[in-house]
Amino acid sequence: MLFWHGQPDHYWSSPGEMYPISGPGLLRDPPVLPYLKQEEPNGISTSQPPCPAFQYVLCAPTSPAVRHHEETLTYLNQGQSYEIRMMGSPRVDPGGEGRRMLKSVVRVVFHDRRLQYSEQQQLEGWRWSRPGDRILDIDIPLSVGILEPQIHPTLLNTVEFLWDPSRRTSVFVQVHCISTEFTLRKNGGEKGVPFRIQINTFEAGGNGDPPEHLHSASCLVKVFKPKGADRKQKTDREKVEKQPALEREKFQPAYESTVLAECTPWPDALGAPHSPPGTPGLPSPHPFKLLSPERLCVSPACAAESLSESPGEALSPCASPLETQQWLHKRRFSAYARVFANFAGADLLKLSRRDLIQICGAPDGIRLCNALTGRCPRPRLTLYMSREPAGGAEGTEDGCSGLYQEVHLEELTVAELTGKLAELLGLPAGQIQQVSRQGPSGIHILVSDVMIRNFLDETCFMVAVTKAHGPEGYHLVLR
User: Is the C or the N end of the chain the one with fewer CB within 10 Å?
Assistant: First the structure.
């Protein structure tokens, strides 16, 4: 039997009840809980669904402004310590060593799907705006029955600890971020984004055995500045009380505590057996490893193609999910590797620009869209050059009848233009002594940086190459 400090017995009045029942004279003897025993006691009615093996209770009241058939919502104050009472069925070690410890990982995660896609970017931005602070912390002096609490320095929203389900266990947690810190306007606590407090419980393992996932539960919360949750709770209660009687029946009653509902585990929780030694159960901040192209490719032809791939090459539609992960890492999209974990090249290429912006946000979404389409940045200046025939300008009646090649300039300097012309004409760059432009009346004007900056984009030039007076050297004239 479990004894909770300061908790009335009617909180756990029967296996099927999840919430306390208000009213005087309801205290009674603690019931027999079959899920705390190894065998099914005789005489227990099985008409009700069995109580889950684990239950977690957050000692904070639920909002009265939640309609029936909707998930309960709990308001928390920033930085205030809240108790989470943990109850589970003790597991006996089959080896005869007695009860085994459990490991629980508590996380604060986003409820909105849009923010889940960009969780790493949101948390990184919060880290820069609040250096040295954490999103979730454990109040160790107030906690009861927890062992070896661990706080990962890089995972600001995650804590973990060991506990014995046969003993009284309460962990006090503090949430230091408020809901409006992840909104665009960042004002008005009522419009802040909701969070989820999720608890994933594992078999602690031993002798090198990987931890086994046992249970996950979560609840919906909003975090306000100090004392803001109390004001919001009062506002909701007054709002409901002003409604007509028929309307009030559509809302759930407010409960003194919040019972975390069972849910599917967070994706990172499933990777707990693969976490590094020393911090089992904590998801790795970089869950994907960079593999060599030989290990990623399934055929020699694919391996050769990947080895010869240039950094600016677009993603191939036939790329496998592992090759897609490698492509994302090479182009600095590692933060979205978990989001696109199961995407092949064709799946990623099917996403529109709008889809990518919704998933990754505007800056990274546009960058990823350009990388997928292989779009190169537009040069600052594009010129079209053609070498003048040996017969001079008379060999071509119009200045644009020859074969031209494009020259892209970024720095808009004489040195850059000289190097591009030397490469185009097959001349040593060090032997080009002068570059000039033919002006009015056939005069030659020395080309300078200012002149290049004033060239019109996509201008055509005929380049005349003449020998300099020195032993080795060339003069170039742009006509």
Answer: N
Given this model, what pLDDT does residue 347 score? 87
Write the DSSP string, 80-138. Answer: -EEEEEEEE---B-TTSS-B--EEEEEEEEESSHHHHHTHHHHHHHHHHHSTT--SEEE
- What's the token pair of residue 270? 């499933």
Quote the CA–CA distance of 81 and 141 in Å, as a whole number.
11
Using alpha carbons, select from 5, 109, 110, 112 the residue that is nearest to residue 57: 5
Indicate if the pLDDT at residue 278 is higher than 50.
no
Helix (H) or strand (E) holding 450: helix 449-453
- Section 53-61 average pLDDT: 91
Mean pLDDT of the 425-450 span: 87
Token pair 């909003």 in the structure block, residue: 222
Q: What is the token pair recorded at 386?
A: 């053609």
Element (H, E) at 140: none
- Spatial CA neighbour of 84 closest among 201, 225, 253: 201
Strand partners, 409: 381
Most confident option among 214-228, 289-303, 355-369: 214-228
**Angle formed by the axes of helices 300-307 and 321-330, to 10°?**
10
Confidence of residue 364 (pLDDT cuts 50, 70, 90): confident
Distance between CA atoms of residues 232 and 227, nearest Å: 9
Residue 32: HSE in the Cβ half-sphere, 13 Å Cα cutoff: 11
Beta strands, E only, 89-211: 102-110, 136-138, 146-151, 158-163, 169-175, 195-203
CA distance 330 to 312: 10
**Who contacts 29 (Cβ-Cβ below 8 Å, separation ≥6)?**
9
315 within 8 A of 348, measured Cβ to Cβ:
yes
Q: 158-163 and 146-151: which strand pairing?
A: antiparallel
161: nearest Cα among 55, 4, 281, 261: 281
Token representation of residue 45 = 């009615």
What is the CB neighbour count within 10 angstroms for residue 364? 18
Mean pLDDT of the chain: 75
Counting every residue, how long is the chain? 479
Q: Would you say 21 and 75 are in contact if contact means Cβ atoms under 8 Å apart? A: no
Residue 102, classed as helix, strand or coil, is strand
Is 5:170 a contact under the CB 8 Å cutoff? Answer: yes
Nearest-5° Cα angle at 424, 419 to 427:
70
State the Cα–Cα distance between residues 288 and 322, nearest whole angstrom: 10
Question: Residue type for 318, please?
Answer: C
DSSP character for 210?
A: P
Of the candidates 20, 19, 62, 22, the one whose C-alpha atom is nearest the C-alpha of residue 232 is 62
Q: For the chain, how far is it from start to end, CA to CA, in angstroms?
A: 97
Q: Are strands 258-259 and 54-58 parallel, antiparallel or unpaired?
A: antiparallel
What is the torsional sign of CA 244, 249, 254, 260? negative
